[in-house]
Design goal:
It is built from three helices and five strands, in the order ααββββαβ. By secondary structure, the chain is of the alpha+beta class. The protein has a single domain, classed as Structural Genomics Hypothetical 15.5 Kd Protein In mrcA-pckA Intergenic Region, Chain A (Roll). Strands 2-1-3-4-5 form a five-stranded antiparallel beta sheet. α1 packs across α2. It is globular and about 35 Å long. The termini are far apart. It holds the Pfam family S4. This is RQC P-site tRNA stabilizing factor. GO terms for molecular function: ribosomal large subunit binding; rRNA binding; tRNA binding. Keywords: Protein biosynthesis, RNA-binding, rRNA-binding, Stress response, tRNA-binding.
Length: 91
């Protein structure tokens, strides 16, 4: 399954166009390699997605063509969720 479609169907990213844009900017890695929106995703792959100040690492459990909202969370497991620290001092 294409990366952009997987991210939309699993509801990690709400819109496929946004998933495509993020992937094509090099902000998503599959198993340690930079991925494009057309990259194939398989079960047991590890995805690292960089959103602004958040990095999300997920493991692919299942590939489904369509899902209901309740079933979408079965498609992946969150391995790690990191937030960038803001070191600015407030005056």
């Amino acid at each position: 399954m294409r990366l952009d479609k997987y991210l939309k169907v699993s509801r990690i990213i709400k819109r496929r166009s946004v998933a495509k844009e993020i992937a094509d900017k090099g902000r998503i890695m599959i198993n340690g390699k930079v991925a494009k929106s057309s990259s194939d995703v398989a079960t047991n792959d590890e995805l690292v997605i960089k959103f602004g100040n958040k990095t999300l690492t997920v493991k692919v459990n299942e590939l489904l063509e369509t899902t209901k909202k309740d079933d979408a969370e079965r498609m992946y497991t969150i391995v790690k969720e990191d937030y960038a620290q803001d070191f600015r001092q407030e005056n």
